[in-house]
Amino acid sequence: MNYEVVIGLEVHVELHTQSKLFCACPNRFVPEPNVNTCPVCLGFPGALPRLNSEAVNLALSASLALNCKVASISYFDRKNYFYPDMPKGYQISQFFEPIGSNGFIDIEDDSGNPKRIRVGRVHMEEDAGKLVHSLAGDMSMVDYNRAGVPLIEIVTEPDLRSSGEARKYLEKLKSHLEYVRVSDCKMEEGSLRCDANISLRPKGSDKLGSKTELKNMNSFKAVEKSLEHEIKRQKKILDAGNLVVTQTLRWDDNSQQTVAMRGKLQAHDYRCFTDPELAPIVLTEEEIEKARVSLPEMAEARACRFVEEYGLPDYDAGVLTASRNVADYFEECLKVYNSPKAAGNWIMGELTAKLNSSGQEIEQCPFRPEHLAELLKMIDENVISGKIAKDVLEKSFESGKSPGQVVSDEGLLQISDQSELETIVDTILENNSDSVENYRSGKTKAIGFLVGQVMKETKGKANPQLVNELLKDKLKK
Ligand SMILES: [Zn+2]
């Protein structure tokens, strides 16, 4: 049978605040367990929560960036369940009235057509602690450093129809949240976590099939893979005439398959009620409007501007604006030296490769925008060749020295002196009479080999244009 895939995503994002959601403990990762704790986040009897206004501001910005309607009054509720990493026996969340609702993110579907994914709700909640299991498997310890860290949960409507769409949605979501700087959104460090609900139904049906929930996916690639795996698994069950069991599954990266965790709790199992110890969050029209106008230029608008203002191809503009830090880097570079296409190429090519291999973020790497500007200027002015420039970038990236400094320290200046190059060209022609004959008998491609020999001789420092001219001129004779 032909099936339609139905996916909804729930994404938890840690908010980038100074302190926790309801106490003054620092919101910062430390390796030592249970040091960022106090009676409030440890759930001592009688300790009273106090709401962190910075977290509310960030949740507000996130809601607006996701095109949500912001509630003028929203509440905190208690979600009751027992688990050792939850010291109070309940989690404070927004169950009945979330801060943001009815938003959307626009993506492209698998055929490249525009598609709107509805964001049903954005709500605030506190994180739980963490269980640490001993290697021998005979003991579990609990670390409450993370208990009470502010989160937002972003829930889509079941609008996604493939694993590819899910991945595109997540990439867009991450970009939006990074633009408004509410979180660093590092999936591998757990500051962005994604759960997926997935079901299949016969094509054309509007009734939802029974779903499973996927957890523990620690990268966008893992999300895509585990969804693909789960689609195949459910299809097999349905094709055999059986029913999919509603349950929570965990993605196992090692075996590359989903593994059952537990039967899924239904919402009413949590016995939610409004927290009597916390006042509602009240946001006035003016406060919401003020937050709205202070949103930065978002990725899509910025990409359009890059095409218009800098004449970049759509593709380049899309890549350069996917992250706000990359887009900022690009524009910083242009302020010093205005060469948009070249700057874009170097950022997307060599610099990205260096960042990936060194595991650094663009905003922290020692190769600053003004360094790139200096490098581009040196290439344009024929001070160094494009080939040497790659080495210069590498050395500058590693040492933090400016490209000019690297060039003078390493003696990498381009040889553009005609008489110096002529001597080298003459020697190469003398030693490669075969290629010279080939060229003169019409095999003009032979010149490529000769250029290569000159570059080799000069360790890449010869001005390639000048070498070409000299060779052509001499081969004519
Ligand atoms: Zn605390």
Which SSEs are present, and which pair or pack?
Elements: E1 3-14, H1 53-65, E2 69-70, E3 73-74, E4 77-80, E5 90-93, E6 100-108, E7 114-126, E8 130-133, E9 140-143, E10 150-156, H2 163-179, E11 192-202, E12 212-217, H3 220-239, E13 247-252, E14 257-263, E15 273-274, E16 281-282, H4 285-293, H5 299-310, H6 314-321, H7 324-336, H8 340-358, H9 369-380, H10 386-399, H11 403-410, H12 418-431, H13 433-440, H14 446-457, H15 464-476
Parallel strand pairs: 12-13
Antiparallel strand pairs: 1-10, 1-11, 2-6, 3-16, 4-5, 4-15, 6-7, 7-10, 8-9, 11-12, 13-14
Helix pairs in contact: 2-3, 5-6, 6-8, 7-8, 7-9, 9-10, 12-14, 12-15, 13-14, 14-15
The structure holds zinc ion.
The site of zinc ion (ZN) has 8 residues, from loops.
Structural class: alpha+beta
Residue share in helix = 40-55%
Low-confidence spans = none
Bound molecules: zinc ion
Number of helices: 15
What is the overall silhouette? elongated
- Across the major sheet, the strand order is 2-6-7-10-1-11-12-13-14
Let me know the number of strands.
16
The chain-level mean pLDDT equals: 92
Strand content: 15-25%
For the termini, the CA-CA separation is: 74 Å
Q: Describe the sheet with the most strands.
A: 9 strands, mixed
Q: What radius of gyration results from the CA coordinates?
A: 29 Å
Number of domains: 3
Descriptive report:
This protein is of the alpha+beta class and 477 residues long. It folds into 3 domains: 3-286, no CATH class; 297-410, no CATH class; 418-476, Arc Repressor Mutant, subunit A, CATH 1.10.10. Helices cover 40% and strands 20% of the residues. It contains 15 helices and 16 strands. It has helices at 53-65, 163-179, 220-239, 285-293, 299-310, 314-321, 324-336, 340-358, 369-380, 386-399, 403-410, 418-431, 433-440, 446-457, 464-476, and strands at residues 3-14, 69-70, 73-74, 77-80, 90-93, 100-108, 114-126, 130-133, 140-143, 150-156, 192-202, 212-217, 247-252, 257-263, 273-274, 281-282. The strands form 4 sheets. It has a 9-stranded mixed beta sheet. The protein has a 3-stranded antiparallel beta sheet with strand order 5-4-15, with no helix packed on it. It has a two-stranded antiparallel ribbon with strand order 3-16. A hairpin with a 6-residue loop joins strand 8 and strand 9. Helix 12 crosses helix 14 (446-457) and helix 13 packs antiparallel against helix 14. The longest helix is centred in the middle third of the chain and has 20 residues, at 220-239. It is elongated, with a radius of gyration of 29 Å. The structure holds zinc ion. Zinc ion (ZN) binds next to loops.
